[in-house]
Design brief:
The complex is a heterotrimer of chains A (245), B (218) and C (52). Chain A is mainly alpha-helical. Helices cover 80% and strands 0% of the residues of chain A. Chain A starts with 11 loop residues before the first helix and ends with a helix. Chain B has one domain (2-216). Chain B has helices at residues 2-13, 21-37, 41-62, 66-74, 76-82, 87-116, 124-148, 156-182, 188-217. In chain B, α3 runs parallel beside α7. Chain B is elongated. The model of chain B has no long low-confidence stretch (mean pLDDT 85). Chain C contains one helix and no strands. The mean pLDDT of chain C is 83. Classes of the chains: A mainly alpha (245), B mainly alpha (218), C mainly alpha (52).
């Protein structure tokens, strides 16, 4: 496969042209997968013998959690691309992705809390996984706040890219620190389910569909938002030039 | 480098430099906690390590925006950028100066404050040691945050938002070490982890801070 | 035809409601901003072309 072909999309115009062609298809597919998966999960799955109907929350909780982490990874990659190759589209894609990631983190946290209430008898426990997500949420907050605080586009892109790199290292550190800290308190009595082991086929197939739906949803939304950021950037540049001349 | 360090220290000690402000803030936090949770000695003793760590962390945070703000305003930061000293070195010296004026006094004062919170006798050693190991990391990470927000008019709040998540690993291991020490448990694991994080940040983060500072000075 | 959610109906329904609401809000906000920015850019580009 020729990866060099990928770099042509670093040209903002080319990016917009190409994505404009594929965006409708991706959006429709994302909508279909999400609707189908959620309806399948909500209406046509049996109840779990232990968890009753709350097992249906899995179709929101797991995909959003998956996306919350992977969107950060995507931001890390695009930030690296920006630092190394200075393609604006890359930096703007990271900027466009951050709010989506934050919303995904919130969904994962909220559905987790609602699920935890009947299952563990508490809305919130300082379980390693929960705590890590809260920390991830804080990182998203800081990242978005830094983007919106700086006026110069290139400076903002540079600073947030470095913050993303440093933040990733510290987020990973926090992840393991939190593991250690909680086991220090509760002798490793983890409240989370081991999903891969526990999920039976009946629940697994609709889950796969919803996960695909969430991924496509993210792709469609990030394309749209990146286009918006590209246009907004161009607009600022034009306005600046107008003021100068 | 020595000259820069001496200059920073002189500036900090002079009025308005904020030296001692961190200490006063630490004292206030420690005073306020019993009002918040009640004066029961046992409860205070149980949460003392956490409170001391939180207090130290917040006191550190308080003085972060002073690291570069004064130099930014009078333009000496631009001079630093063109000086023969590499930016990484300048940033490290800045962090060291911040630690000497904020972190070290906090470490030295912490036994007195621990007394106020009736920390068990066994906890003093590990508590002071954990702060001694952890506060340099706080200063170095804080310098990174300060470098990020140096050009911003009202960067203070943003600075806290950016820096506090980065403080988490240090806080977790530091407070855990102090707590285990206070309860008479073995604290070698958090000690090693804390030392590792501090060494890692001191070694690597100045590069990021210097890069960020160069971008901001562009 | 609602499935019988038993005693956990509240939990299940509220989590679906909250999540879908958040997703819809995010989508609508993105789309609206996309439209607005696209139009503004067109206006500016059109104006600049006219001006020379």
């Amino acid at each position: 496969m020729n990866f060099n072909a990928l770099w042509q999309y670093a040209n903002p115009k080319k990016f917009i042209e190409t994505t404009d062609r594929v965006l409708p298809a991706i959006s429709v597919l994302a909508g279909l997968c999400m609707v189908a998966g959620l309806i399948w999960g909500f209406f046509f799955t049996p109840e779990d013998y232990r968890q009753g109907s709350t097992v249906k929350i899995i179709y929101l909780h797991v995909p959003s959690a998956l996306m919350a982490i992977n969107i950060w990874l995507m931001m890390l990659v695009t930030s690296l691309v920006w630092i190394v190759r200075r393609h604006h589209v890359s930096a703007l894609a990271a900027r466009a992705a951050a709010p989506i990631g934050m919303v995904m983190t919130v969904i994962a946290l909220v559905t987790g809390a609602i699920w935890g209430q009947p299952m563990w008898g508490t809305w919130w426990a300082w379980d390693p996984r929960l705590t890590s997500f809260l920390i991830l949420f804080l990182f998203y907050l800081g990242y978005i706040a830094l983007w919106s605080a700086i006026e110069n586009d290139d400076t903002a892109a540079d600073l947030t890219a470095i913050l993303c790199l440093v933040g990733s290292v510290f987020a990973l550190l926090s992840r393991y620190a939190v593991n250690f800290w909680n086991q220090g308190l509760h002798q490793g009595a983890s409240l989370s389910l081991d999903r891969e082991e526990n999920v039976a086929d009946v629940f697994w197939y609709p889950l796969v569909v919803t996960m695909a739906g969430f991924v496509l949803f993210f792709v469609a939304l990030v394309i749209l938002r990146t286009q918006t950021e590209i246009r907004a950037r161009r607009m600022r540049a034009l306005l600046a030039r107008e003021r100068m001349g | 480098m020595i000259a820069l360090l001496a200059r920073d220290l002189r500036l900090a000690v002079r009025a308005g430099g904020g030296f001692g402000l961190g200490l006063a803030f630490f004292l206030i936090v420690v005073t306020l906690v019993p009002f918040g949770v009640g004066p029961r000695t046992q409860l205070l003793a149980a949460i003392a390590p956490g409170i001391l760590w939180l207090g130290a962390l917040l006191a550190c945070l308080l003085s972060l925006d002073r690291i570069f703000a004064l130099d930014w305003e009078d333009g000496s930061l631009d001079l630093l950028a063109t000086a023969p000293l590499p930016m990484e070195g300048a940033v490290s010296v800045k962090a060291l100066a911040h630690w000497l004026t904020t972190g070290l006094p906090l470490v030295l004062a912490s036994p007195v404050f621990a007394l106020l919170l009736s920390l068990p006798a066994a906890g003093y050693g590990p508590m002071v040691l954990s702060l001694l190991l952890g506060t340099p990391a706080l200063s170095v990470i804080g310098t990174f945050g300060a470098a990020l927000t140096v050009g911003l008019k009202r960067g203070g709040l943003l600075l806290s938002l950016l820096v506090l998540p980065l403080y988490m690993p240090t806080l977790i291991f530091g407070a855990e070490m102090a707590r285990r020490g206070a309860e008479g448990l073995d604290y070698s694991t958090p000690l090693l982890m804390l030392a590792g994080i501090t060494c890692g940040t001191i070694a690597l983060l100045p590069f990021a801070s210097a890069a960020v500072l160069r971008i901001n000075l562009r | 035809m609602m499935p019988d959610l038993g005693k956990y109906a509240e939990a299940v329904l509220s989590s679906y409601a909250v999540s879908l609401l958040l997703l819809v809000v995010l989508t609508v906000a993105s789309v609206r901003r996309a439209r607005r920015v696209r139009k503004e850019l067109q206006d500016i580009e059109g104006k600049m072309r006219k001006d020379g």
